[in-house]
Amino acid sequence: MEKLKLIKELLENKKAEDIVILDVSKLTNLADYFVIATANSTTHARALADYLEEELEKRGIEIDHIEGKDYGHWILIDLIDTIVHIFTPETREYYGLEWIWADAKKMEV
After folding, report:
1. Helix, strand or coil, per DSSP, at residue 102
2. Cα(15)–Cα(23) distance, integer angstroms
3. 2-107: CATH homologous superfamily?
4. Where does this protein chiefly localize (predicted)?
5. Sheet holding 65-67: strands in order across?
6. How high does pLDDT run on average in the chain?
């Protein structure tokens, strides 16, 4: 729970919007939690990902891998038990992860 709170705070620090945390642990073995956030542009998305990567590494939180930074429309940061999805507004709407994972419990941290 502390890691989720930290991730949310770090994203908020850099003006990510519409941050949603989903508990997907009972629905998939991909991860326990998805953190979904919106950036206002691809540049903003890459900046959010860079900041998150830097701050998590400072705190000793392992990042398994990062995908999508080259384009920036959908950046995925895999922390093994938690996957952070950073979208541009259009891409978030198009893929509709909240709709796909509608059975997941929304978390408040």
Report:
1. coil
2. 23
3. Beta Polymerase, domain 2 (3.30.460.10)
4. cytoplasm
5. 65-67, 74-78, 82-87, 33-38, 17-23, 105-107
6. 96
- DSSP for 8-64, please give it: HHHHHHTT-EEEEEEE-TTT-SS-SEEEEEE-SSHHHHHHHHHHHHHHHHHTT----
Distance of CA 94 to the CA centre of its chain: 16
Query: What digits encode the pLDDT tens for the residues 81-105?
Result: 999 999 999 999 999 999 999 999 9
Domain boundaries, the chain: 2-107
Query: Which residues on adjacent β-strands are paired with residue 36?
Result: 20, 85
| Whether the predicted model's global pTM rises above the 0.85 cut | yes
Beta bridge partners of 34: 22, 83
The SS3 of residue 68 is coil
